[in-house]
Amino acid sequence: MRRSGTTWDAEPFAAWARRWEIVLGDGYVRPGWIPLLDRLARDLVALGWDRQVAQIKQKVGRLCFYAPRAPGPAGEAFWGRIEVAARESRRTCELCSDPGRPGRPGGDEHGWIQTLCPPCFEMADASERARAAELERELAEDEARLQAEEDELAKSDPEYRAYLEEFVYPHRLGRRSK
Ligand SMILES: [Zn+2]
Predict the structure, then answer these.
(1) How many CB atoms lie within 10 A of CB 39?
(2) So what's the pLDDT on residue 173?
(3) What is the per-residue pLDDT across 122-174, written as a single tens digit (0 to 9) for each?
(4) Closest CA to 132 of 124, 144, 121
(5) pLDDT averaged over the chain?
């Protein structure tokens, strides 16, 4: 299967909505689920679907497809078919359509649950971890900048310095001693 370089390529989903003349409230799923959505749309249209859907999205690695109403006589088949697609989504890579399973790229601390095949998981895991490391680096830089500003102010303001020494410095992590 084709692996798209961009994780958030919105065009395949937009093209899907145009292809089936969907009246969509809002939403988006990634390219790997488009074949699944094509089969779903085909079957729902055959059941008399009016092509209206309030929202389509991914939640905890699963397709959420909120149609406002079922075509009268086909109610049970209609909702059942949507449920089948949701179950299928939990076994289908969101990026490339290969067999996948839900996981948390980036680890429990940083990641959100996505259904991915092993190679796409590895790719997403590496980029989530790099992003988390970058964020931590930025926070540390901000903290260092703030501390330097405080120290500079304290030089010309003894009261402020006393305040810092009593309330702030004891709580600084890894503070270098002066
Ligand atoms: Zn994949």
Answers:
(1) 14
(2) 62
(3) 999 999 899 889 999 999 999 999 889 888 888 888 888 888 888 888 887 65
(4) 124
(5) 89
- CA of residue 56 to ligand 1 center, whole Å: 20
Domain ranges of the chain: 11-99, 117-178
Q: What is the DSSP-derived secondary structure letter of residue 102?
A: E
Tell me, in angstroms, the distance from the centre of ligand 1 to residue 100's CA.
7
Q: How wide is the angle at C-alpha 31 spanned by C-alphas 26 and 34, nearest 5°? A: 75
Strands 101-103 and 62-66: unpaired
The DSSP-derived string for 10-66 is: -HHHHHHHHHTT-EEEEE---GGGHHHHHHHHHHHHHTT--SEEEEEEEETTEEEEE
Q: How far is the CA of 83 from the centre of ligand 1 (A)?
A: 22
| 98 Cα–ligand 1 center, Å | 5
pTM assigned to the model: 0.76
Residues 40/85, Cβ–Cβ less than 8 Å: yes
Q: In the prediction, which pLDDT does 156 show?
A: 87
Q: How far apart are CA 176 and CA 178, in angstroms?
A: 6
Cα 121 to ligand 1 centre (Å): 7
Ligand 1 centroid, distance to 155 Cα (angstroms)? 57
